[in-house]
Amino acid sequence: MKRREALKNMGISTAFFLATPAVINLMQSCTSDTNSWIPEFLTEEEGVILSNLVDVILPKTEDLPSALELNVPQFIDKYMNEVFDDESQVYCKSGMAKILDLLKPDREYPVNKLTPHDYRNLLDNYMLINGEKDQERESVPESLAPTTSEFLNSIKWMTINAYKTTEYIGEHVLAYDPIPGAYYCGDLNELTGGKSWSL
Predict the structure, then answer these.
(1) Which terminus of the chain, N or C, has less C-beta within 10 A?
(2) What residues contact residue 47 under an 8 Å CB cut-off, 6+ apart?
(3) How far apart are CA 9 and CA 27, in angstroms?
(4) Helix and strand numbers, DSSP H then E, in the chain
């Protein structure tokens, strides 16, 4: 297997998880206050960065809470710590180091002084639209370390999947049946008003 394909597979495995009962249980255990949260896998500085990235990726809207309010950063950190294998953990640490270097060229600069604008700029500059070329990957195609774009895409997909797995979204946003009965075949718009089913 080519090294580049191995990297792609590793990135996909770190960015997507199945909503198994164990994962849902893990999500429900993340009920700590965001301000007093101490990461288990990430450093405190990396936890602040993850929280801010997650908040920019899925911010609060008029109708929905933000991913930050639903403890998505805590879940991602816990998932990295308890579920990822050693190789995936190294992938995440390497990606976070690149993000830190981009956001804080001066190591002494406090991470708490970074603004939402700094995080938006990072995402705007490094998140690729489908079809765009990753210049960082093209310059070192054999490297197993994630590029900034690959890592940020992993964070984005973990954020979205964790958000959809939360109890609040499952019960209040998606189509939810607490006591599933007979299964019906039919048009999704008729059965659920066009909403996807909650897990």
Answers:
(1) N
(2) 37, 38, 39, 73, 77
(3) 24
(4) 10, 0
SS3 89: helix
Its pTM surpasses 0.85 = no
Look at residues 53, 59, 66 and name the one whose alpha carbon lies nearest to residue 154.
53
What is the spatial distance between Cα 53 and Cα 35, in angstroms, rounded to a whole number?
Answer: 15
Least confident of 4-13, 54-63, 182-191: 4-13
Cα torsion angle, 16, 19, 23, 29, sign? positive
Backbone φ and ψ of 105, nearest 5°: -60, -30
The residues facing 175 across adjacent strands are: 197
3-state secondary structure of 142: coil
Give the pLDDT confidence of 75-108 residue by residue, as tens digits.
999 988 988 888 888 888 989 999 999 998 788 8
Cβ contact 155:57 at 8 Å = yes
Q: How many other β-carbons are positioned within 10 Å of the β-carbon of residue 71? A: 25
189 in helix, strand or coil?
helix
Quick check: helix, strand or coil at residue 147?
coil
- Could you identify the residue written with the tokens 């690959």? 150
